[in-house]
Each structure stands twice: as structure tokens, then as C-alpha cells.
Amino acid sequence: MEYILHILILICIYTILSVSLNLLVGYTGILSIAHAAFYGVGAYVAALMALRLETPFLLNLGLAIVCAAIIGAIVGVPSLRLKDDYFVIATFAFQIIIFSILNNLVDFTGGPLGLPGIPQPEIFGFVISTHLEFLILAGLLAIFTYWFSSRIVKSPFGRVLKAVREDEVFSQAVGKNVASFKVQVFMVGAGLAAIAGVIYATYITYIDPTSFTVMESIFIISIVIIGGAGNLKGSVVGAVVLVALPELLRFVGLPNAIAANVRQILYGALLVIFMLWRPQGFIGEFAFNTNTEDKSKKPDG
Amino acid sequence: MDKILKTQNLFKKFDGISALNNFSCFVEKNEILGLIGPNGAGKTTFFNVVTGFLPSDSGDVYFHGKQISNKSPYRIVADGISRTFQDLRLIRQLNVLDNVLLSFQNQAGEKLSGVFFQKNKIIQTELQNRKKAESLLEYTDLSELANEPAGNLSYGQQKLLSIVCCLAADAKLLLLDEPVAGINPSMREKILSVIEDQKKEGKSIVIIEHDMDFIMEICDRVIFMDTGEKISEGTPGEVRNDPKVIEAYLE
Ligand SMILES: Nc1ncnc2c1ncn2[C@@H]1O[C@H](COP(=O)(O)OP(=O)(O)OP(=O)(O)O)[C@@H](O)[C@H]1O
Ligand SMILES: [Mg+2]
């Protein structure tokens, strides 16, 4: 039973990550491979606050979101001006930098040894400790993330995001400050990803830098693309499938060491299959890899 | 009459080729100005510079007497200049109505704070804009296509829709880059009447067009340019009969 609850909690965490990344990748057409970095920022901010300052959970959660969003702005303002490919590289660089900081600032972050003994969340005197309680917390925060994101994409703001995804020049020509919209949505995505980090840190009670690598970013991108870019429900479906699927491998009786490798291969294969034959994912509306009309970037000719 | 747009001594070079060479001109309030010239003359470049999509190498652009050179495109739209593109741009994946709705300026719902804290205001402005958009679509006979993805429209309908988007943006000055090139005669008539209506409403319009009949029919004044320079300027008749223009076309 605990095992199933554990899987469900992971699904909630990855739903938060994929829904928030979908705002960037699926709705705005900006491919960031730094999502795990913001996930990590959230986890470390909440963990350090709880460990060092013993501040309450909700404050830590709020601060984690704000920190990630601010870092999102600092990274986003210069890098979002770059063309697609260079932006991907810039986010990759940022991902590496965050990993190095977490790994090397030993006094502060614990370095490779990580931070053990993260206190469990206490909300208005109620300590969250059982799996079921964590599932409820994670579930509520996942619902909040979904609601928040869906409010955005259904609004006129979301209409502009789609326009930016399809044609930046036209968006400017109808008076939209494209750069500002991109930075704003990047900050929102970063802030929401931090929520997942906070849940993860307080649930596992131990974090180290290996949970927030570029591989993790790519895993989240896989969820978005396989679930369906540009469709929030797709991200939920994607999270369920990609988190649950490898668990099924256990029941096939593969030894753990091999299962880990098989899992990586499986994700890779799934991603390739979807990119080739169903680029819009399970239920997406935006075919990610067919949007190669680079006409959308230059004014006229 | 007042000059709504004035440009002074614009220069723009691409790899040594002059696209704008000391180009100065003005647009009067409530006039339709035709901008003609051979391929590569610099007409589109002029639009790109005025609308902020390309920086000029030097020179100034004034709108309502205020300098707008080096402003970002979105600020220039907010000031009241809208344009269409020679290579036809719209958000093809969004439906026709959404393209028009997207084009309204200053929407509360396009601010994140608005999305979460001004629900009622957003619903109200969205409803108002929807009404305006629907009446614009009705006026241009595109109502029936309101829920079609813009990409499903015919080429002519898309060109018309891109003009409707300029109207939704509430532009005082419209810059239309080849609005009737490659479209059928009946759509041409419709676009012509829309442009004439805009003039009646007090707007100013600049039209780039290779179709000389269209230019002769609709323009109050014409500028002929070649290799980035203004060669001739005057009424359509004057420009057409200007020996320099005839010479340039014969070359
Ligand atoms: N973004 C650009 N980069 C490089 N060269 C350009 C660019 N835009 C225009 N040019 C060049 O500048 C010159 C003027 O081009 P422009 O598009 O303004 O001509 P035009 O008068 O609009 O011609 P057409 O009638 O064919 O549309 C051409 O030689 C063109 O190749
Ligand atoms: Mg042109």
C-alpha cells in the first residue's frame, strides 16, 4: 500500500514539473532544459530554510517559489533574447552551473553528500508524516499548479503565448512585448517547478545534487512531449505513464541494476517513437518538432 | 493639413546595398499614399524601419511630431501605427476570431496580475472586444469563418483578415504591404472598399503595391522609389507620366 502511495506522490511531483514546463515548451514554444535546476532550487531553498533557520513550511514553500522565479528572471532576461538553439544551450549551461553550485558549495549545500534530515512539513501545527498525508499535500499542490496554469493558458495572456509560439514577428506587429511575455512565463514555470522541489525535499527528507541533473530535465521534457505539448491534461497523462511504466518493469522481475538501464532506454525509445510518429504526443495540439518554419523569426524578405 | 508621419534622411544598407538612401517623406492626415518602385527598391525596408522591426543606419522617424526612431515594434503599435506583411502573417493555428482578439491593445487579461486578480474586468473587456471583433468580421464578410483556423482561409481572405487585425489594433496609420497582390478581382474590390472606408474614418494609409491600376484608383499621392531613393512624388497621374519613372521602369 505504501508503495502505491509512494508512486502516486511521485506522479503528483512530476505532474507539477511537467505541467509547469508545458507552459514554456508547449504553449510558448521555448525549449528549456533547465527545469530540473528550478526543481532543485526549490528543494534546496526549502531544505536549507527548514534545517538552518527552522522556519515554518509554508514560508519555506513561498520563499522557494519566489527564489526560483527571481532566478528565472535573472536567467531568462538575457537568454530568452537568443534564438531557439542558443536558448537551449543557455539553459543547458545554467543547468550545469546550478548542479556545480549544489555539488561544490560543500559548506552550504552539503556538496555531493547532500542534505539529510530535512524536517517534515508542519502546517498550522499539523505535522505531515505518513504517506497518505504526503499524498494529500502533493495532490493539493498538483491541483493548485494545474489550476494556476490552466487559468493562464485560457486567458488572453495565454492567447499571446500561443501567438508567440507560432509567430513572434506577427505578435510584435499586433503590439505584444514578446520578450516580456517570455520572461514572465519563464518565471512562472520556474516558480511552479520549485513547488515540486519542496514536496520532494520534505517527503524524501534527504536531497543531493544528483536528483537535479540535466537527465532529470530531459525526463521532464519527455513527459511533456509524450503527454502532448500544448495540452495540460497531456502532461498529467504523461506523468502517470512515465512514472508508472518503469515501476511495471519491476514486476517483470528485472534485477534493479538492469532495470535502471532499461528505464533509460525505454524513455529514449519512447521519445524517439513519439517524435517520429506522433509529435503531438498522446493528446497535444502542438507538434513540437514540426514547427521548423524559421520564417517566424525574421521580419520580411 | 497635418503631417501624421514624417521621416528624415533615412539610410539603410544591407551588405553594401542601399535599401534606403537619404529617404525623406511624409504622410498627411487622412490621406492614402502609394509607395511604388521596382523589386528591391526598398519599399518593404521603409515599412520595417518605420515600424521598428529594423533599425535604420541613420535618420529620424516622427509620428504626430514625436520621434519614434529606435522604439520597439510593440510600442510603435501602441502609438497607433499598424502594418501588414508582404509575406502574409497571421497566427494560422488560432481561429479567425482569436487573431482579431489578439490584436486589441492594452488588454487587462494580458497582464498576469489581471489574470488572477481582475477576473470581472477581464471578462468585461473580453466581451467588449469580442463584440468589436464580431462587428469587424461582419463588416468584412468574414463572420462565417470566425471559428475556422486562420490558416484554412483562402489567400485573399487571409490578406483581408490581416487588415482587420490592424483595424482591431485601432491604428491611426496603416502600412499595407502589397494588400492586393495575387488575389482575385472580387476580393480586390472588397479590400479597396475597406481601405477607402478607413480613409473616410479619418485614418491615414500607406500602400505598397505593384498593381498600378489599384494605385491610380485609390491613392491621393504617390511616391516612386528606386535603389532606396525617392525618384518622383506627386499625384498618381504626375508620377506615372514622370520621364524619370518611365526610364526607371524601362531599365
Ligand atoms: N533583412 C534583410 N537582410 C538583407 N538584405 C535585405 C533585407 N531586407 C531587404 N534586403 C535587401 O534590401 C533591398 C530592398 O529590399 P526591400 O524588401 O525593401 O524591397 P522592396 O521594394 O520591398 O521589393 P519588393 O517589391 O520585391 O517587395 C533588396 O536588395 C533586399 O535584398
Ligand atoms: Mg517588398
Structure description:
The complex is a heterodimer of chains A (301) and B (251). Chain A has 301 residues and is mostly helical. Chain A is built from twelve helices and two strands, in the order αααααββααααααα. Helix content of chain A is 72%, strand content 1%. Chain A has a two-stranded antiparallel ribbon. Chain B has two domains: 1-80 and 171-251, Rossmann fold (3-Layer(aba) Sandwich); 91-170, no CATH class. Chain B contains ten helices and ten strands. In chain B, α7 (185-200) links the parallel β7 and β8. The interface between A and B is medium-sized, with 28 and 41 residues. Magnesium ion binds next to α1 of chain B. Residues 14, 17, 19, 37, 39-45, 86 of chain B line the site of adenosine-5'-triphosphate.
Entry summary:
The complex is a heterodimer of chains A (301) and B (251). Chain A is mostly helical. In chain A, 72% of the residues lie in helices and 1% in strands.
Defining key terms:
heterodimer; A: 301 residues; mainly alpha; two-stranded antiparallel ribbon; 12 helices; globular; B: 251 residues; six-stranded mixed beta sheet; four-stranded antiparallel beta sheet; 40% helix; binds adenosine-5'-triphosphate; binds magnesium ion
SSE order and pairing:
The complex is a heterodimer of chains A (301) and B (251).
Chain A: H1 2-28, H2 35-53, H3 57-79, H4 84-104, H5 106-109, E1 122-123, E2 126-127, H6 131-154, H7 156-166, H8 168-173, H9 178-204, H10 214-227, H11 232-251, H12 256-277
Antiparallel strand pairs in A: 1-2
Helix pairs in contact in A: 1-6, 1-9, 1-10, 1-11, 2-3, 2-4, 2-9, 3-9, 6-7, 6-9, 7-9, 10-11, 10-12, 11-12
Chain B: E1 3-14, E2 17-28, E3 32-36, H1 43-50, E4 58-63, E5 66-67, H2 73-79, E6 81-83, H3 96-103, H4 112-117, H5 119-139, H6 155-168, E7 173-177, H7 185-200, E8 204-208, H8 212-218, E9 221-226, E10 229-234, H9 236-241, H10 243-250
Parallel strand pairs in B: 3-8, 3-9, 6-7, 7-8
Antiparallel strand pairs in B: 1-2, 1-4, 4-5, 9-10
Helix pairs in contact in B: 3-6, 5-6
Bound molecules: adenosine-5'-triphosphate (ATP) and magnesium ion (MG).
